[in-house]
Amino acid sequence: MHGSFRAYVVPSLILFATISIIVLDRMALLNAPSYTKQGLSAFESGNYVESIHKFSQAQKHSETDILTRRMLGMSYHNYGWHDEALIQYEATWFLAQNNAALAMRNAGRLHRIRNEPEKALTCFHRAVAVDPEFAGAWADLAELHRVEGRPKPALSAIDRAIKLEPQDLSFQQIRASIRTADERPTAETQKQKD
What we know:
Helix content: over 70%
CATH topology of the largest domain: Serine Threonine Protein Phosphatase 5, Tetratricopeptide repeat
Order of helices and strands: HHHHHHHHHH
Radius of gyration: 27 Å
Shape: elongated
Largest sheet: none
Distance between the termini: 105 Å
CATH architecture of the largest domain: Alpha Horseshoe
Strand content: under 5%
Structural class: mainly alpha
CATH superfamily of the largest domain: Tetratricopeptide repeat domain
Number of strands: 0
């Protein structure tokens, strides 16, 4: 009797716990946006201990959420825990920088597809300005310069990408295509030789 009771109770408890977690999640009681909202409310009311707790919980659910990082930093700052605040501020900057650079690279690629080279150039320049160590953005910039017939800036950009990620063979291929394009005689240089 005892064994059959246990065989029914344990699976029933596991099922109940699983359903409870699903319901709480659906009610937004166990997710990052809910914790962030609760953290914002606590912060606005000046309850920094509670806001630190809620933003820390939200951060566990979504480590790359810039708002949560920044607000956790502000909560620590206002509570007087400056070392912790600085850690969160630095993490916020890193995430923002990374997101901005990726967004500008993607925008630049889209402008290239739409045949808008000047807009693409602006976006790629923004990407490398925000994150000078973003090798992929340097390579995209090099490729754009190559296509637009500007071999010197193309070589400079691809050399930067290669220096940042020497193991990426695609950068070497881009460099070779820039060199090849630069060595091809143009109509003007051909006339000068004749």
